[in-house]
Amino acid sequence: MKDKFEALNEEFSNEENITIFEDGYGVSRSSDYIIYSVEAEVIHKVVAEYGRATKKHAIVGGQTSCKAPEIAAFERHLPSDVEIISCHSLHGPNVKPEGQPLVLIKHRASQRSFDLVIRILSCFGSEHVHLSAQAHDRITADTQAVTHAAFLSMGTAWRANDQFPWEHSRYVGGIENVKCNITLRIYSNMWHVYAGLAILNPSAKKQIRQYADSVTGLFKLMLGGHKAELEQRIKTAGEAVFAAERRGEPLLLSDEVLDRFSLGEVPKERTPNNHLSLLAMVDCWWKLGIVPYDHMICSTPLFRLWLGVTEYLFRKPALLDEVINIAVDDNTFRSDDLEFTFAARGWSDCVSFGDFSSYRDRFEKIQSYFAPRFPEATRVGNEMIKVILEKT
After folding, report:
1. Which residues lie below 8 Å from residue 310, measured CB to CB, with a gap of 6+?
2. How far apart are CA 48 and CA 210, in angstroms?
3. Residues 207, 186, 283, 165: is their CA dihedral positive or negative?
4. Among the listed residues 21, 23, 64, the one whose alpha carbon sits nearest the alpha carbon of residue 44
5. Could you tell me the pTM of the whole model?
6. How far apart are alpha carbons 125 and 190 in whole angstroms?
7. CA–CA separation, 138 vs 149, rounded Å?
8. Radius of gyration of the chain (CA)
9. Residue 133 in contact with residue 281, Cβ under 8 Å?
């Protein structure tokens, strides 16, 4: 940014190997390896501006979360002699990169150039995963888009009911800790981190719509008191997602881990919850034919946590039966579930319309509501993620 030129020049004035340019033209003309780290929404505009100045035989890549528009921009605006090798770190800014998946996409490049990029990026200590741009977008949609939609909808519902969930005993302890911590973690980040992946990823819209449909369908069964139909649908989905061959394997999350990370005081007796958000996630995976374990090599820490709590629920038959009974017979969470259903459909509509400004407005209004608790939630969330990373 030109307004930071003087400040950056002063900051790095004693660094011999760092040169600050006034704009992207200087960077493009002189660099052998260029990474466009901009929002997916503006990647086309930025590459159109500076791509034509790219040094001959340079390597160019991007760090956007959605590769379809990024690759399209590179193909359209970069000279034909420029090589394209893209990347994407599958974790947030507060997670150490060591051991985390780093996707590398050899789109238009020699093996020699690809090996060079691998050596450069090896400093992160990440686990390299080689994919095509299309496979990247499909897998990130499978592992991130619906996960984000679920937590965004929780935050929207809590704000609509004007409640900080950790101040109510029914949202403290066990699975509730994951819901609260990760919802706040997502809302503490920038809105565009999630908007680009949801709106520009060709696979994401369908999946987010299915999640909203799953939430709505299950909620209608709860309201109608159709326990037998609800039970059959939930358990059929569970059988499809959590196949028999996994039943002998240990759970990703234990009671001790779930109870450790709380933003409020854990009550002696918990209020049973129907966990509509979790039931709908598994129903959504089932409807879309997604087996979440197939993507563990490319999964984010948030996805592993979300998978861990859904697995915890569905692989404990007594707990799952309790949830189904509560869903029909207990109205304690009914107003929360109603707002959650509205929220899931609202986020899906926002994504379907491709409206970035509406997405930002919705996100930032809820963000400001929860902002006072972000520092504590980030601290607790970091500790929670550290534990799940150790286990997976």
Report:
1. 241, 278, 281, 282
2. 35
3. negative
4. 64
5. 0.83
6. 25
7. 16
8. 22
9. no
Q: Cα angle vertex 152, ends 238, 330, to 5°?
A: 55
Q: Under 8 Å CB-to-CB from 208, ≥6 apart: which residues?
A: 145, 146, 149, 198, 347, 348, 351
Q: Tell me the CB-side half-sphere exposure of residue 373, using CA atoms within 13 A.
A: 24
Give the model's confidence band at 48: pLDDT under 50 very low, under 70 low, under 90 confident, else very high. Answer: very high
Please identify which residue in the block is written with the tokens 């861990």. Answer: 308
DSSP H helices in 13-66 = 24-30, 43-50
State the residue for tokens 């509730």: 176
- In three-state secondary structure terms, 93 is coil
Alpha carbon distance 280, 274 (integer Å): 11
Which residue, among 354, 348, 169, 193, has the nearest Cα to 272 in the 3D structure? 169
pLDDT digits (tens, 9 = 90+) for 266-309: 556 666 788 999 999 999 999 999 988 888 777 777 888 888 88
Position 264 pLDDT exceeds 60:
no
The residue-averaged pLDDT of 325-339 equals: 90
Give the H/E segment covering residue 353: helix 334-353
Which contiguous run of DSSP H or E holds residue 36? strand 33-36
CA neighbor of 207 nearest in space, from 133, 131, 283: 283
Q: CA nearest 185: which of 102, 99, 256, 92? A: 92
Report the half-sphere exposure of 260 (CA within 13 A, side-chain side).
15
Give pLDDT, residue 133.
94
Which amino acid is present at 91? H
Q: Encoding tokens for residue 166?
A: 């950790």
H-only helix segments in 161-300: 175-187, 192-200, 204-224, 227-241, 255-260, 276-288
What is the DSSP code (8-state) at residue 94? T
Angle between helices 301-314 and 227-241 (to 10 degrees): 130
DSSP 8-state symbol, 296: G
